[in-house]
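Can't paste images in this forum, so I'm doing it all in text. The chain is below; anyone willing to post the predicted structure tokens underneath?
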Amino acid sequence: MRYIISITIAVVFSLALSARTIIITESGLPLQEQVWFSGANFPGESIKKNWDEGRRIHAASYTDKGWFFVMAKETGYTAQTYKIDPQWPSDWIKGNWDKDYYISELAYGDGKWLIVMSQSDKFTA
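Text version of the structure:
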């Protein structure tokens, strides 16, 4: 719960202070080898590189500076997929629910929805 509150606070502050991006972190989480990256263009190659190294997306947002991602190992996610689309991808989401993926991150920016779906043995519904 504290993780969700931290990310929410970071997004709210970054929207309120459009000239600044604020990052709030928390110690004591099981995350390992955490990395973050940002850019005006959607960083699909950086996401793939980090997936290949065993990291998973655990935070994503869009600010006036562009897309912002945090990825780490030991997130509890066993697999991930994402879709970035100007339309809400209902069929894609339903198709991934059938494969036991659940929405783990959601962001909107640059006229597009970003939906990250993850698999985990901790998800039950």
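The mean pLDDT is 80. The helical segments are 2-16, 44-52, 90-97.
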